Amino acid sequence: MEERSEVYDKFELLYEHVKTQSRCALRCDNARELTSLCGLCEKKYGMECSLIVKHTPEQNGIPERMKRTVTGQMRCLLAHFHLPQELGAEATVTTAYYINIVPNSTKGVQVP
């Protein structure tokens, strides 16, 4: 995204991709263009939307941990199969896919 005004168009593309998921939620900071987007998400799409308090990156812990998990697993995938760094984007998508399909307790599925 090069301009902040593109946020709605990019969100429409994102929503088309994630609307098939069982649960959709959006968490964002209090930027002006995103607060109005949250209202739109709840009304038009029925998505759960939560805003974090301004200037508190601590509240962004869950997405940051997930980003770190995906990045770490992507690097392991590339290293294990001796793949070039140019395949990093594809490895990231693959890693995110596997994380999403593995059952875990936060999804309401008991893990043995």
Automatic annotation (TrEMBL):
<dbReference type="InterPro" id="IPR012337">
    <property type="entry name" value="RNaseH-like_sf"/>
</dbReference>
<keyword id="KW-0479">Metal-binding</keyword>
<dbReference type="GO" id="GO:0003964">
    <property type="term" value="F:RNA-directed DNA polymerase activity"/>
</dbReference>
<keyword id="KW-0239">DNA-directed DNA polymerase</keyword>
<keyword id="KW-0548">Nucleotidyltransferase</keyword>
<dbReference type="GO" id="GO:0046872">
    <property type="term" value="F:metal ion binding"/>
</dbReference>
<dbReference type="InterPro" id="IPR039537">
    <property type="entry name" value="Retrotran_Ty1/copia-like"/>
</dbReference>
<protein>
    <recommendedName>
        <fullName>Integrase catalytic domain-containing protein</fullName>
    </recommendedName>
</protein>
<keyword id="KW-0540">Nuclease</keyword>
<keyword id="KW-0233">DNA recombination</keyword>
<dbReference type="InterPro" id="IPR036397">
    <property type="entry name" value="RNaseH_sf"/>
</dbReference>
<dbReference type="GO" id="GO:0003887">
    <property type="term" value="F:DNA-directed DNA polymerase activity"/>
</dbReference>
<dbReference type="GO" id="GO:0016787">
    <property type="term" value="F:hydrolase activity"/>
</dbReference>
<dbReference type="GO" id="GO:0015074">
    <property type="term" value="P:DNA integration"/>
</dbReference>
<dbReference type="GO" id="GO:0003676">
    <property type="term" value="F:nucleic acid binding"/>
</dbReference>
<keyword id="KW-0695">RNA-directed DNA polymerase</keyword>
<keyword id="KW-0255">Endonuclease</keyword>
<keyword id="KW-0378">Hydrolase</keyword>
<keyword id="KW-0229">DNA integration</keyword>
<keyword id="KW-0460">Magnesium</keyword>
<keyword id="KW-0808">Transferase</keyword>
<dbReference type="GO" id="GO:0004519">
    <property type="term" value="F:endonuclease activity"/>
</dbReference>
<dbReference type="GO" id="GO:0006310">
    <property type="term" value="P:DNA recombination"/>
</dbReference>
